[in-house]
Specification:
InterPro entries: PPR_At4g14850-like_plant, PPR_rpt, TPR-like_helical_dom_sf. It holds the Pfam family PPR_3. By secondary structure, this protein is an all-alpha fold. Among the domains are: 96 residues; 124 residues, Tetratricopeptide repeat domain (Serine Threonine Protein Phosphatase 5, Tetratricopeptide repeat). It is 67% helix and 0% strand. It contains 26 helices and no strands. It starts with 41 loop residues before the first helix and ends in a 7-residue tail after the last helix. The N terminus is likely disordered.
Length: 476
């Protein structure tokens, strides 16, 4: 999903608007006709604008030449302001409201621009304004507001919009139908999603996939398999949905079986398929199959992006092949912090603490910003390697240099590190300074350290606290 920075004018928090939906469609006082584009170069200049101030100059020219009064020209200007990365939503709304005859293209564009900037409440508020101004609504309008409902989880509002869709006669639109199935599914209303599906006269691959994804997202494995088997045709999205579902519910062998069937039927896997497969293989420890997937990636020239690269090196790590994991890490050209974290974690869990520290230094040198997971991995590496001074230094860096507040996992690593070193005074000091209560994992690691160093008094205290927090943990 792409993320866009909102202009300052749109950062003000907004409460969900009341959606005014009448029981009957308002009279259409302005039949929509596509205005004839004017013969002018002004709009061509608008297409060349890369900055807001340039669009402002074109806007001024349109006012000077009275071209702003032309519906088509004003709508195109509003479109630039609404959807351009260099636009301004206030300007877009002002231009749209200035159009004498409300033009639904401009309003749809305004809604689209707000959705692009994640202003979902505002998008629905604009729909409300369209109703009040008697702007004719079309399938594009409803597709946009249904997307807003998906993002906001407005379950009841979906049914209200659905009623409006039926009243306005656009329920047979393929895009509307598929969006309705999707939004009902996302909100957990699979009965309603199925009703839309069953009433559809034309079922395309997107319709089937929408229903399939709905059942998968709601955890109904029986209907996932039933719908999948009934599909008249499948694409890579269909296969990925079923494979991802089995990975999600930890049925890794079934995921691999579906992947094998996918190959037999001649469907080419994509990056999403391979990430899910590597996840399943990692949990099963099926190294031979993991090597096969890696060979497939190389043979077909598939780029190791941050997701696929992380999945591949994580698989090798869980299978105990650190050298192959490092190969996958080196082959990953575009490394995100998740890729770095996966490699540091792999080295830490395989007792290669000094290499993990070297890699952390590479993170800092690459100007990649470490996150809280990075510090969990490096503190874990210090704990396994008995590197007390280094661990204390990294723990201090978190807040002072990177502004990351330590959470329970970071404190747990410190308790484990100090306990393994027999520094029980520092352990108690750290526990007292924590902003949260010690959890069962901390007490368990402290109890283990007390056993090693024969600290019976503190060990007894740790044991009693552990019994309170985890009475069924017989491993302690």
């Amino acid at each position: 999903m792409l993320h866009f920075h909102c202009p300052s004018s749109s950062n003000t928090p907004m409460t969900p608007p009341t959606i005014a939906i009448s029981h009957s469609p308002p009279p259409i006082t302005n039949p929509q006709k596509i205005p004839t584009p004017p013969t002018t170069t002004t709009l061509s200049l608008l297409q060349l604008c890369n900055h807001l101030h340039e669009a402002n100059q074109v806007h001024a020219l349109m006012i000077k030449t009275s071209q702003i009064s032309h519906t088509y020209s004003a709508s195109r200007l509003a479109e630039f302001y609404a959807v351009s990365d260099n636009g301004n939503h206030k300007y877009a709304e002002t231009v749209t409201n200035s159009i004498q005859v409300p033009y639904r293209y401009a309003w749809n564009t305004l809604i689209r621009g707000n959705l692009k900037k994640k202003n979902t409440h505002k998008a629905i508020s604009l729909y409300d304004q369209m109703m009040r101004k008697s702007v004719e609504l079309d399938r594009f309008t409803f597709t946009l507001v249904l997307k807003a409902c998906t993002l906001l989880g407005l379950r009841e509002s979906v049914k209200q919009f659905h009623c409006q869709i039926i009243k306005r006669g656009v329920e047979n639109s393929v895009s509307i139908r598929n969006k309705l199935i999707h939004v009902y599914a996302v909100n957990g209303s699979m009965v309603d999603a199925r009703k839309v599906f069953d009433k559809s006269t034309e079922l395309d691959i997107v319709t089937w996939n929408s229903l399939l994804e709905g059942y998968a997202g709601n955890g109904d494995g029986v209907l996932v398999r039933q719908v999948f088997d009934e599909m008249p045709q499948r694409d890579v999205v269909s296969w990925n949905t079923v494979i991802a579902y089995y990975v999600w519910v930890s049925k890794f062998s079934e995921a691999i079986e579906v992947f094998q069937r996918m190959q037999e039927e001649g469907e080419q896997p994509d990056g999403v398929t391979l990430v899910n497969m590597l996840t399943a293989i990692a949990h099963l420890g099926a190294l031979a199959q993991g090597i096969w997937v890696h060979a497939y990636i190389r043979k077909h020239g598939i780029e190791l992006d941050e997701n696929l690269g992380s999945a591949l090196l994580n698989m090798y790590s869980k299978c105990g092949c650190l050298d192959r994991a490092m190969e996958a890490f080196d082959e990953t050209k575009r490394k995100s912090i998740d890729t770095w974290n996966a490699m540091i974690g792999a080295l830490a869990s395989n007792a290669r603490s000094l290499e993990a520290i070297d890699l952390f230094s590479s993170v800092e040198n690459s100007r990649t910003q470490p996150d809280f997971i990075t510090f969990s991995c490096i503190l874990n590496a210090c704990s396994h390697g008995g590197l007390v001074e280094e661990g204390l230094a990294y723990f201090g860096k978190m807040k002072t240099i990177y502004g990351i507040e330590p959470d329970v996992a970071h404190y747990g690593c410190m308790i484990d590190l100090l306990g393994r070193a027999g520094l029980f005074d520092k352990v108690e000091e750290t526990m007292k300074s924590m902003p949260m209560e010690p959890d069962a994992i901390m007490w368990k690691s402290l109890l283990s350290a007390c056993k090693i160093h024969n600290n019976f008094d503190l060990g007894e205290k740790a044991g009693l606290e552990l019994i309170k927090l985890a009475p069924d943990d017989h491993a302690s």
